[in-house]
Design a protein that fits this description.
Layout (H helix, E strand, L loop, with lengths): L1 H7 L4 E7 L2 E7 L4 E2 L4 H12 L9 E5 L2 E8 L2 E7 L4 E2 L4 H7 L5 E4 L3 E5 L3 H6 L4 H4 L6 E7 L7 E6 L15 H12 L3 E6 L5 E8 L2 E6 L11
């Protein structure tokens, strides 16, 4: 699986195998297996429904390294039931701040990632981190976030994970497991819309549900292939 993911050379490649109660699901970057991935889970559910392997009105149930994850359809959106992963305020390592070259208003961490909050989305958009230095940070990735400028969104973010072979991820569902509780506390809102301001960009709906986060996204099929 790792060899296939390396050849695909995408942020994550998902592998699903039928399970007596759903599907076993694993995710690989070009260099590493990861514990949680949002967009590849969403894409897997989309393919199962679109191909007719799973009934269009059925819930997709995935057995993963992060426990049982569920996906369901909500009109033109797909909703993922993921674990919340709130961050706790933490002193940033020197390599982290040197790599980003910014003055954060908050730095926190959970078991997977650092979260660095900035005052201004404009700074977030123009951020050009030192990837080689960022790779030294001993975490899966670094979430950088700021309040959104557009009234359409509540917050903006970017996600860098060179330590696992992803310099910058276009859209990162798993990062919103940390972003949703972080911004919910500051904005006093349980339902929010985030925008990931990568070069491709992407919208993620979030809704807190106890110790879970409901993530909403969309998917389309752009290619079909057969490995031989």
């Amino acid at each position: 699986m790792q060899d296939v993911a390396r050849e695909m050379n995408l942020s994550e490649t998902a592998f699903a195998l039928p399970h007596e109660e759903g599907y076993d699901l694993r995710w690989f970057t070009p260099t590493s297996e990861v514990d949680l991935c949002g967009h590849a889970t969403l894409a897997t559910a989309h393919v199962l429904w679109e191909s007719g392997v799973l009934a269009s009105d059925a819930e997709a149930v995935f057995h993963t390294r992060s426990g049982i994850l569920r996906a369901s359809r909500a009109d033109d959106w797909i909703e993922l039931d993921f674990p919340a992963q709130p961050v706790e305020e933490s002193a940033p390592p020197k390599d982290l701040l040197d790599a980003l070259g910014v003055q954060p208003v908050f730095v926190g961490r959970n078991a997977s990632d650092f979260l660095v909050a900035l005052e201004d989305e404009k700074v977030l958009r123009t951020l050009r981190p030192n990837i080689s230095l960022l790779e030294r940070v001993d975490m899966r990735g670094v979430i950088v976030t700021a309040p959104a400028i557009s009234a359409r969104f509540d917050f903006a973010s970017r996600f860098f994970a060179p330590a696992v072979g992803v310099d910058e991820d276009p859209v990162t569902g798993s990062a919103h497991c940390a972003l949703a509780p972080y911004w919910a506390e500051r904005l006093n809102k349980r339902e929010m819309v985030g925008y990931q301001v990568s070069s491709r960009g992407g919208t993620v709906r979030t809704r807190l549900a106890g110790d879970r986060v409901i993530l909403g996204g969309q998917a389309i099929t752009v290619m079909r292939a057969e490995l031989v």
